[in-house]
Amino acid sequence: MKTSISTLSAADGLEDKLAAFSAAGFDGIEISELDFAVQGRTPAEIGNMVRDQGLAIHLFQPSVEFEGLPEDLREKALNRIERRFDVMAELGTDLMLLGSATSAASLGGVDRMADDFALLGERAAARGLRICYEARAWGRHVSDYRDAWEVIRRADRPAVGLVLDSFHVLARGLPSDAIRAIPADRIFHVQLADAPAVAMDLEYKSRRFRLLPGEGALPLLDFVRAVAATGYAGAYSLDLVENRSRATTRQLALDGHRALTALADAARRAEPTCRFDLPDMPAKAHIEGVEFIEFTAGADDAASLGEMLRQLGFTPVARHIARKVTLWQQNGINIVVNSETRGYAHSAYVMHGTSVCDIGLLVGDAEAAATRTEMLGARRFAQRRYSGELNIPAVRGVGGSVLHFLDRKTELGKVWETEFEPLAPDTSIQSTGLRRIDHLAQVMKQEELPSWILFYTSVFDVEKAPQVGVSDPSGLVRSRALQGSDGAFRLTMNGVDTYRTFAGRFLSDSYGASVQHFAFLTDDIVASARKLAENRFESLSIPDSYYSDLGSDFDLAPDEIALLRDLNILYDRDETGGSFLQLYSRPHGDGFFFEIVERRGTYNGYGARNAPYRTAALKRLAMPFPGDRGSLRIGRREEA
């Protein structure tokens, strides 16, 4: 599959854009007349710049309107286009895009416009060039690709074809099915962009709100399936109009190529007869659960962390055969504490302090999941293996952390028996009824949030919940939840743009550690809370004002509210009657914390109603900035 991207998709210098597009794996670009205005170079020099980066120029877009004009303006437009033909010859491209006219001077008329394109097609063919016509969603007379195709069909010139832009088709709510009837050799180019499902002026929306495939609400899969069903074998191009959702053009290019590849793979699976020149790629991985969480901690900090785990009801059950690594378990939850003084985990400790450095995900096929991740642009992770250690596939994740993939069908399903030696049972620790990991919460800069959402949704079989704003006394945290259809895997991703929020402070103080909190599922949170208290676990204190409001918000009996207050349990309920109960630990280290939850009925959220109370309570206890007195840290980096 040929991949392309418009130079107008990123706001950067042309040289930097070309380098980023090439490094991301694109085959070519669309170039606009606007690029010439700021370069001060000849078209020939710009063409050489493009080819020096290993890219082709798939399309040239001039600022010219043409069809349906009165005779005097028509001749002027033809002359302008002839001059652009000279530019194309210098650039080294043979395809020009012309959008449907928006000028009040355009007279319209299907036959008049067809005659215009017939004449232009003859002139283009005489110079070995081609013209592709695009129906702009706000075109004066042609705003529907079916009308544009009728103009091209009547023009009946081999050098004149159609360009299909998903935005112009789908943002107007037009069906994609009619595309299947268009001959493949008359589709000269395809452009892709997503957009949010928000009603607004389409021209404004096009210039301000174009998104990468998968980031909006347009039915792009249906569109690409329809195009591919024609037998179209040309380029699929991103046309984003200065998308500023990423901090750098490099990241936009990497994410864009990943989005294109994932979309094409989805279309190929949904439409088996589609012709996509793509290497075979494993299907999206279904996550069966979080197999382990690995903390990195120095020797002293490991003892402090161990005490916290004991309070939570975890027991040390095994020690690694070759590393300073201890396995803690409670029912189906595996927590690994790594105190190595060299290698990746130690580097993570030096950088972030006591923190999560590794997450193990249980999938159907571990190697297939890693292969798909790598084929979509992620980096494999590897480090020295000792005798007896398994070769567990892994890739780099958020904040430089690691994602390991395990499965039950290979030897990876016996990792705990293979790599760990049992310890003598510790009967002094009381289980608190925690069954499994309900969800993890990752924190990142706001500008990184779209990239990591795209990463997870293109690699794994997960769905996105709508983005919500989580209130913090010092600002807003943008949060998006991802989860599998069966709820076995849940992840909340929180984007911050100020260090003053609790999540932002964690990101700042931990120098970019990714996982801020871990939620464990229990079947009876009241029983778990009482056992936690017996283990000397200190829960996060919730102010009485929260419980005063609870009675007016929900029909809870006074004794129920009193019980929740006594145990510092938060409560939420959804519109179906399902409820959610939460209990938090006090903050530890650079601000990470634990959560215990109980889900009742069909509740599928994360207690967003309670977030302002939780963040305010955490901030009251949180560690001051470096240099302040009274720090609650564990795992302070000696090297920092």
From TrEMBL:
<feature type="binding site">
    <location>
        <position position="439"/>
    </location>
    <ligand>
        <name>Mg(2+)</name>
    </ligand>
</feature>
<dbReference type="InterPro" id="IPR050312">
    <property type="entry name" value="IolE/XylAMocC-like"/>
</dbReference>
<keyword id="KW-0223">Dioxygenase</keyword>
<keyword id="KW-0456">Lyase</keyword>
<dbReference type="InterPro" id="IPR041736">
    <property type="entry name" value="4OHPhenylPyrv_dOase_N"/>
</dbReference>
<dbReference type="InterPro" id="IPR036237">
    <property type="entry name" value="Xyl_isomerase-like_sf"/>
</dbReference>
<dbReference type="GO" id="GO:0003868">
    <property type="term" value="F:4-hydroxyphenylpyruvate dioxygenase activity"/>
</dbReference>
<dbReference type="InterPro" id="IPR013022">
    <property type="entry name" value="Xyl_isomerase-like_TIM-brl"/>
</dbReference>
<feature type="domain" description="VOC">
    <location>
        <begin position="289"/>
        <end position="408"/>
    </location>
</feature>
<dbReference type="Pfam" id="PF01261">
    <property type="entry name" value="AP_endonuc_2"/>
</dbReference>
<keyword id="KW-0560">Oxidoreductase</keyword>
<dbReference type="InterPro" id="IPR043700">
    <property type="entry name" value="DSD"/>
</dbReference>
<feature type="binding site">
    <location>
        <position position="595"/>
    </location>
    <ligand>
        <name>Mg(2+)</name>
    </ligand>
</feature>
<feature type="domain" description="VOC">
    <location>
        <begin position="436"/>
        <end position="586"/>
    </location>
</feature>
<dbReference type="Pfam" id="PF00903">
    <property type="entry name" value="Glyoxalase"/>
</dbReference>
<comment type="similarity">
    <text>Belongs to the bacterial two-domain DSD family.</text>
</comment>
<dbReference type="Pfam" id="PF14696">
    <property type="entry name" value="Glyoxalase_5"/>
</dbReference>
<feature type="binding site">
    <location>
        <position position="517"/>
    </location>
    <ligand>
        <name>Mg(2+)</name>
    </ligand>
</feature>
<comment type="pathway">
    <text>Aromatic compound metabolism; 3,4-dihydroxybenzoate biosynthesis.</text>
</comment>
<keyword id="KW-0479">Metal-binding</keyword>
<dbReference type="InterPro" id="IPR029068">
    <property type="entry name" value="Glyas_Bleomycin-R_OHBP_Dase"/>
</dbReference>
<dbReference type="InterPro" id="IPR037523">
    <property type="entry name" value="VOC_core"/>
</dbReference>
<protein>
    <recommendedName>
        <fullName>3-dehydroshikimate dehydratase</fullName>
        <ecNumber>4.2.1.118</ecNumber>
    </recommendedName>
</protein>
<comment type="function">
    <text>Catalyzes the conversion of 3-dehydroshikimate to protocatechuate (3,4-dihydroxybenzoate), a common intermediate of quinate and shikimate degradation pathways.</text>
</comment>
<dbReference type="InterPro" id="IPR004360">
    <property type="entry name" value="Glyas_Fos-R_dOase_dom"/>
</dbReference>
